């Protein structure tokens, strides 16, 4: 007798033999118990999960005279004929080979005839998504109202290619991808029946390689048995399946963590010398990084199918990784994975990716960045030597160009800022003749209206302008002080000074120039400005959190609203 492959030899012959699809088998068994069998069924799912097998079992359950609750006896003539695909009342049609409208017309004629030696005439259409649109349309009427003795069972791996009009006329069952545990148990049962010894690592490797397909798993098992001796060992399975050892992945990520140039080159040379497929390496590396991220979470590896020894190896390796770093590495690998299939030099792309990852620095959280920046800022403020006042004179007036004063000093001075050369304290001689043609009191009276107009135009500028007060005119330029605001707000006003000047000109009916400067929060001048000068309706604080202020300053940000 010729050899029969394992996938056919151990093909399920009853609903109880189908593994991993209890939601389908239990529903069909209950339908038999309640005598609620539909006229059409459509089974969908990935390859090798039991769609066609279940269709044959359903056909036997319908036509077997000795069936009980849909379970065929598998001993009668009808059951044997269906198992051997030679029953005249159960016709299996390949949708890929019989996809035209003429074939469907013949099917419509055949279903009109009563069955020869069974209760039902059943049509099993495999790969039904391959039918043409005219063929689907020709099938609609017959599928919706077939003869009492007619049943349709359709199977497909691409349900999205089947028209909704066909699906709506059938009961749809989605077959699940089989888990590694289910495939492993099935392989162990078959090995016990075949009296073949195999270690656990070999069975796990076959189950993982099958990617949820039982037919693929049994085909791989056939191949491994043919290659191996009396006992299957993991080393032989690796050779047959071309599996990439996990040591390659761990060596790659360990080189990233330790900044080990030599270790990375050794791993890359191993990949090239062993002829490992680059696409498989990158895909496996992406899964490896994902496993490391899961390993950083308590019981995170429960979501990943792997043996206990490998889980412990991942947990030990993940202890030295930050999730933020792994996320960045995964992003780079994912980008390469999408492009490496079209690369003319995939090995070089893999090597460049490794060198790029080797140069990546560790991630730093914003909180830590702010903490370090604030510590450096405080340290530099404490150690900075005081500067003497520098006075500059000219023919028209006398003014202070730069000045540094300790915090809390009670005099009319300007507080310390980052760049003293850009900020001048206002002239102290308030008797200087005003050359602008408008008094400072008149400008102060118009100032709330100016702020409102600027706010309507640019909200962020108006919010900062609420903390500013015009103090005096020096020539035709008005000196405007800003109270209790960070330096980047002063830069915001300077960068948008022309907008403010245009708005002010519309209110005071003449062109004026504005010069902004900061006033130290604890100075006497600031207290007087906040108490006496700033209108009450403009005192509402827009002060933000210190952390937010620091973020805006570090990243040159802007508060929009």
Q: Show unreliable segments.
A: 383-433, 532-543
Counting DSSP E segments of at least 2 residues, the number of strands comes to 12
Q: Helices and strands: which structural class?
A: alpha/beta
> What is the approximate shape?
elongated
Q: What proportion of the residues is helical, as a percent range?
A: 40-55%
Give the CATH architecture of the largest domain. 3-Layer(aba) Sandwich
> What is the terminal separation in angstroms?
83 Å
Radius of gyration: 40 Å
Can you give keywords for this protein?
561 residues, alpha/beta, Helicase, Ruva Protein, domain 3, Zinc Finger, Delta Prime, domain 3, five-stranded parallel sheet
Secondary-structure blueprint:
Elements: H1 6-9, H2 22-33, E1 40-44, H3 51-63, H4 77-83, E2 90-94, H5 101-110, E3 121-126, H6 133-144, E4 150-156, H7 164-167, E5 171-174, H8 180-194, E6 197-198, H9 200-209, H10 214-227, E7 231-232, H11 234-241, H12 246-258, H13 261-273, H14 278-295, H15 308-318, H16 323-339, H17 346-358, H18 366-383, E8 390-393, E9 398-402, H19 440-457, H20 459-465, E10 468-474, E11 477-483, H21 487-495, H22 497-508, E12 513-519, H23 524-533, H24 546-554
Parallel strand pairs: 1-4, 1-5, 2-3, 3-4, 6-7, 11-12
Antiparallel strand pairs: 8-9, 10-11
Helix pairs in contact: 3-4, 5-6, 8-9, 9-11, 10-11, 12-13, 12-14, 13-17, 14-15, 14-16, 16-17, 19-20, 19-22
């Amino acid at each position: 007798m010729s050899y029969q492959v394992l996938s056919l030899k151990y093909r399920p012959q009853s609903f109880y033999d189908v593994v991993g699809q209890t939601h389908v088998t239990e529903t069909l068994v209950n339908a038999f118990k309640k005598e609620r069998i539909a006229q059409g069924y459509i089974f969908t799912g990935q390859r090798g999960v039991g769609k066609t097998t279940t269709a044959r079992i359903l056909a036997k359950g319908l036509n077997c005279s000795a069936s009980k609750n849909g379970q065929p006896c598998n001993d009668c003539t009808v059951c044997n004929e269906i198992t051997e695909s030679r029953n005249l009342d159960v016709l299996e049609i390949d949708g890929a080979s019989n996809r035209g409208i003429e074939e469907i017309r013949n099917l419509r004629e055949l279903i009109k005839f009563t069955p020869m030696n069974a209760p039902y005439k059943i049509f099993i259409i495999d790969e039904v998504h391959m039918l043409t649109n005219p063929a689907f349309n020709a099938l609609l009427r017959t599928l919706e109202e077939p003869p009492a003795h007619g049943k349709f069972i359709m199977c497909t791996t691409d349900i999205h290619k089947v028209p909704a009009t066909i699906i709506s006329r059938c009961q749809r069952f989605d077959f699940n991808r089989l888990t590694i545990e289910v495939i492993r148990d099935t392989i162990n049962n078959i090995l016990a029946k075949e009296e073949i010894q195999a270690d656990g690592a070999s069975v796990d490797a076959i189950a993982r390689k099958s990617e949820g397909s039982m037919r693929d798993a049994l085909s791989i098992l056939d191949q491994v048995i043919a290659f191996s001796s009396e006992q299957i060992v993991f080393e032989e399975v690796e050779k047959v399946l071309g599996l990439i050892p996990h040591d390659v992945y761990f060596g790659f990520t360990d080189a990233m963590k330790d900044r080990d140039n030599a270790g990375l080159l050794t791993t890359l040379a191993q990949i090239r010398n062993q002829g490992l497929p680059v696409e498989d390496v990158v895909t496996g590396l992406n899964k490896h990084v994902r496993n490391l991220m899961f390993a950083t979470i308590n019981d995170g590896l429960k979501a990943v199918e792997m043996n206990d020894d490998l889980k412990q190896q991942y947990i030990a390796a993940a202890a030295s990784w930050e999730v933020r770093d792994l996320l960045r590495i995964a992003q780079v690998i994912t980008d390469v994975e999408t492009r490496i299939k079209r690369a003319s030099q995939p090995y070089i792309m893999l090597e460049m990716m490794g060198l790029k990852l080797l140069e990546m620095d560790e991630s730093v959280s914003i909180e830590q960045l702010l903490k370090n920046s604030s510590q450096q800022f405080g340290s530099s403020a404490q150690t900075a030597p005081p500067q003497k006042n520098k006075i500059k004179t000219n023919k028209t007036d006398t003014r202070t160009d730069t000045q540094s004063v300790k915090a809390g000093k009670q005099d009319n001075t300007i507080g310390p800022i980052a760049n003293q050369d850009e900020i001048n304290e206002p002239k102290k001689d308030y008797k200087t003749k005003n050359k602008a043609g408008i008094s400072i009191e008149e400008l102060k009276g118009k100032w709330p209206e100016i702020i409102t107009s600027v706010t309507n135009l640019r909200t962020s500028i108006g919010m900062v302008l609420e903390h500013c007060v015009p103090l005096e005119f020096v020539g035709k330029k008005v000196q405007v002080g800003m109270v209790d605001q960070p330096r980047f707000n002063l830069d915001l006003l300077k960068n948008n000074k022309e907008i403010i000047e245009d708005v002010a000109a519309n209110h005071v009916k003449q062109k004026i120039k504005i010069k902004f400067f900061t006033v130290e929060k604890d100075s006497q001048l600031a207290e007087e400005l906040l108490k006496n000068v700033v209108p009450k309706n403009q005192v509402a604080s827009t002060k933000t959190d210190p952390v937010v202020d620091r973020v805006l300053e570090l990243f040159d940000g802007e508060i929009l609203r």
